[in-house]
Amino acid sequence: MDPERSDLPRRIRDLEDRIVEATLERQRARNGGAENRFGQVGRRRSREDAHYNLLNLAEALECESSALFGAYVHWLRSVLEARGVSIEALAEHLRLLGDTIAREIPEATESLLPACIDEAERVLSSPSPSEEQTPYVTPGEGLAGRYLSAALEGDRGAAVSLVVGAVEDGLSVRDAYLTVLQPVQREVGRLWERAEISVAAEHCATAITHLVLSSLYPYIASSHDRRGTVVITSAAGELHEVGGRMVADFFDMAGWDAYFLGASTPVDSVMDMARARKADVLGVSASTIGSLGSVRLVAEALEQQNGDRPILLVGGRVFDLVPDLWKSVDADAYAPDADAAVERCEQILSAGDSP
After folding, report:
1. Which pLDDT score, from 0 to 100, does residue 3 have?
2. What are the average pLDDT values for consecutive 10-residue runs of the chain, which has 355 residues?
């Protein structure tokens, strides 16, 4: 990566505390802000939110994508509106954040920073995201709906029995993943974003999905002809791992030796595993903008590796937000889902295009 390209994001991160405090002080001076209105809790949360907003902005600048920051603001607006937070206050905060950066780093005005702030204002002045959202699954309707209801109720036994029973009755494991587990997990995430379920309920439903995945694994049929070796992990700092686990299982079903490392595995350990298993593909999943830096570290470690190195495949929700975002982290390929991940890697290997 061009050192000049990453200089502004680095300087923003170096000045993180100073920029956040100056922004909050200016917001307090204008209207009191959450710090005055909600006491100590408001002070803590406003600082946490400001740090999070700033780091997401820095990552968008790192990726040279104002659209990425717009996608983050779109998500943030949806979450805050569902919780009754003023969008006008958010718009003011982001404007002040951009202005404070420009005061601390004057040359930032010649960068993509103004475009990022303009994109945020465009998103916040558009119709509410809540009007665009439709459920992925309706509770109680069909197998997926019944599974969703059981998962939200925390009924592990019923949830496992529903999906495993369907597989024993003829539903393929692949279709169980694609038509039940995947849309239900997306619906659980949507319900949390809309504040219709708590964090605890979301965690409980996700834990149940992990249990179902484990229960289905004995039903996975894989080819005896080994097509390659893949190591799948979530980016360091990334806590979401259901998607990566599903991708590993799809490679398994396609006849690959698949190793799944779970959530937030340190980069050095990922590289050790990839070398030990002589991986043809190293897959990294990321769901948040904040995880992109960890994916970039994996790419840098691969570049420093002597001899043949595995294909770096990336996927996850964050890479679905902006076309070609995967290129900004120096990955070799991107896949929007498990089927596409297997297909893309087999195409690359069969064509002899390994890096």
Report:
1. 45
2. 67 97 91 57 84 97 96 94 90 96 96 97 85 83 97 98 98 96 95 95 97 96 79 90 94 94 91 95 95 95 88 96 95 95 93 71
Q: What is the spatial distance between Cα 94 and Cα 72, in angstroms, rounded to a whole number?
A: 12
What are the structural domains of the chain? 3-131 (1.10.490.20), 142-219 (1.10.1240.10), 229-351 (3.40.50.280)
CA atoms within 13 A on the CB side of 249: 25
User: Going by C-beta distance under 8 Å and a sequence separation of 6 or more, which residues neighbour residue 202?
Assistant: 188, 189, 191, 192
Q: Which of 101, 89, 92, 94 is nearest to 19 (CA)?
A: 101
The letter for the amino acid at 276 is: A
Please give the model's pTM, rounded to 2 decimal places: 0.89
